[in-house]
Amino acid sequence: MLVKDVMSAQIVTVSPNDTAQSAARLMAETEVGALPVEVPGVGAIVGIITDRDIVVSVLARGHSTSTAIAEFMTVSPELCNEKDDTETVAARMRELGVRRLVVVNDDRRVVGIVSLVDVPAETQRAEGLQ
């Protein structure tokens, strides 16, 4: 099975200059828990933020909701291709200790996010992820 068959289609990204509040609002509107951070006009993925990042790195530390995403994003997120095999991606997530990978196409454009919950249960068991 390929990543494109199980990923969550993701065409919404944020800029490093956007605020924590605008990212949280966008997550609520689009019902996602993670957003790739993309350089506007360039299309390069430079980071990723999660709803947990906003809570732990901004709110819990008493920072303003106007804090720029660049201040708390995970830099250089792990990527995979939409044509990658889910078994390979599950093994990579296990090796890296991450729960999500940004999915790109052959042109390196974001097309989605694959998370551990998207990977079929039998693949997770085979990879020791459950």
Automatic annotation (TrEMBL):
Protein name as catalogued: CBS domain-containing protein
Coiled coil: none
UniProt entry keywords in alphabetical sequence: CBS domain
Cited InterPro entries: CBS_dom (IPR000644), CBS_dom_sf (IPR046342), Diverse_CBS-Domain (IPR051257)
Pfam families named in the record: CBS
Annotated ranges, domain CBS: 7-65, 73-130
Keyword Repressor: no
Organism lineage: Bacteria, Pseudomonadati, Pseudomonadota, Alphaproteobacteria, Hyphomicrobiales
